[in-house]
Amino acid sequence: MKNRSLISINDFSKEEYIKILDIAEDFEKNPRQKILENHVIATLFFEPSTRTRLSFESAISQLGGKIIGFTDAASSSVSKGETLMDTIKTVANYSDLIVMRHPLDGSARWASEVAGIPIINAGDGANQHPTQCLLDLYSIRKTQGTLENIHIAFVGDLKYGRTVHSLVIALTQFNATFHLVSPEELKLPSAIKKYIKDAGLNYHQYTSIEAIVDQVDILYMTRIQKERFADPMEYERVKNSYILKNEMLENSKPSMRILHPLPRVNEIEEAVDKNPKAYYFQQAKNGVYVREALIASILGYK
Amino acid sequence: MENSLRKELKVAAIENGTVIDHIPSNKLFTAIRILKLDTSSNPVYFGTNMSSKKYGSKGIIKIGDRYFGRDEINKIALVAPTATLIEIKNYKVTNKYKLEIPKEIQSFAKCFNPKCITNHQAVPTKFKVFTDEKGLIKLHCHYCEKTTSQENMVFN
Q1: Chain A to chain B, count of Cβ pairs less than 8 Å apart?
Q2: Could A103 and B141 be called an inter-chain contact, meaning their C-beta atoms sit closer than 8 Å?
Q3: B118 touching A, CB under 8 A?
Q4: CB 3.0 to 4.6 Å from A34: which of A64, A114, A159, A226, for a disulfide?
Q5: Chain B residues with beta carbon closer than 8 angstroms to that of A103
Q6: How far is it between the farthest Cα atoms of chain B?
Q7: Burial A284-302 (b: 16+ CB within 10 A, else e)
Q8: Each residue of A166-216: pLDDT tens digit?
Q9: pLDDT tens string B15-24
Q10: What is the mean pLDDT of residues A244-273?
Q11: If you classify domain A131-284 with CATH, what class do you get?
Q12: CATH of the domain spanning A32-128
């Protein structure tokens, strides 16, 4: 993976994902390794994202690397009308690797074609957020001991949820069975279902969590946003059916774990946080190890 | 022979150049635009809503003193996959072939996704061309990874 960019989850093979996860496991055991002391890494956030940016910056700091960058476009030359190409070409002169988030779809791919140095996509509009997908895979493997043959339920907004789309696509390489729980209006798009069909795998659709929670290994929760509904009455009608409560988990498998890409609003009751099946904060922590692994691999240290 | 000759002559015969036949009538002007014939200095003749035994109705374009490379002409296969290309030299057909849908196209189609980087900054577009289960031609954007279907295709 040396000197390669990671823009889309489709850029890496199954073996390459596994390699990154293996390296991340080493970093989990020993997260502070000063291997990037001679490196400068740019974090360019053309739109704000506190969680993702801090996770990357923590990963870089724990490896001893220096960070330059900006946290939103208003405080950068973009506000003076500079094109993305010019910003990227300039910053590429100052750094060894660029981590970027940008509001436009496809911006990261374009940046990787003009930069001359590797780019890690930390989210390009509604398109891709591959490091989220890697940390989801890491969390699944860690809690289930394997990525193969798992039963996973995706709950909530499956239509617009970028993390859901990427994870579904990635898991089609690991013989997963997909259980899709969503309101009628927010079902998984057919373009994503096509990946499941093309891989010869199965998916099942439900409109309530209870219908499937007892049978799955992973319950992947997402937020349902009110603005996604054409009819506000419909939102009021369905919103409570997608809120996870402890009593729903009583008969779930002991090994089942709950994931959520965060931020959470109200779709998981806070009481669930103390449930041993809740894994979403650990999942966010795993993101740091995965990002350490990815950066170290791209810069040729692992 | 007599009959087909007369039919060809509905749009002026050319001594040397290219005839593009069997273009769907409603795609004729799109094809002209894709090939940039609207700004060409060559003689260009065209007809549309002409009767066709095979397709019911068709459009036809004749371009004098001009020949196209395969890559260039195949661009219009996106909107006119049924089109036939005929090369004429000295009033005689010297070459005739069906268009082929290109696997990849660059710089002349627009991405339908309003949030795609190519619609905001000076980024040349790039698409993979594929046909879906229903046999419809679609474009997969190299940048935003979204799909543009035939009815939404716009060409620069």
Answers
A1: 50
A2: no
A3: yes
A4: A64
A5: 115
A6: 55
A7: bebbbbbbbbbbbbbbeeb
A8: 999 999 999 999 999 999 989 999 989 999 999 999 999 999 999 999 999
A9: 999 999 999 9
A10: 96
A11: alpha beta
A12: 3.40.50.1370
